[in-house]
């Protein structure tokens, strides 16, 4: 199957681990020395309706791409979550 980079840009990316929609391909990374596709880049999600910018871009390596279809790309992606420190709201208010 042949695919142009322009066609890749509009494809939706789905994680096969949980069925979640990751986003649409925004860019691709190419290794020009070996002439091969290295990764796809998905633009970060908007923060507070775009007023606070965007989150970090998601980069999915070629080895994690399972199927490239006409409209979608299925990937095996493990997101890295940053743990928030839990705070007790009321304890912080009344703290001396």
Automatic annotation (TrEMBL):
Signal peptide (residue range): none
Protein name per the record: YlmC/YmxH family sporulation protein
Domain named PRC-barrel: residues: 5-77
Pfam family, one: PRC
SUPFAM superfamilies membership: PRC-barrel domain
Source organism of this protein record: Candidatus Paraimprobicoccus trichonymphae
PANTHER family: SPORULATION PROTEIN YLMC-RELATED
Gene3D superfamilies, sorted: PRC-barrel domain
């Amino acid at each position: 199957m042949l695919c142009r980079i322009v066609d890749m840009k509009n494809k939706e990316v789905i994680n096969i681990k949980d069925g979640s929609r990751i986003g649409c391909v925004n860019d691709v990374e190419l290794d020009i020395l070996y002439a091969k596709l290295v990764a796809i880049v998905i633009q970060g999600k908007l923060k507070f309706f775009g007023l606070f910018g965007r989150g970090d871009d998601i980069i999915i390596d070629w080895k994690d791409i399972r199927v490239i279809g006409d409209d979608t790309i299925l990937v095996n992606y493990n997101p890295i979550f940053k743990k928030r420190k839990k705070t007790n709201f009321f304890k912080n208010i009344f703290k001396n």
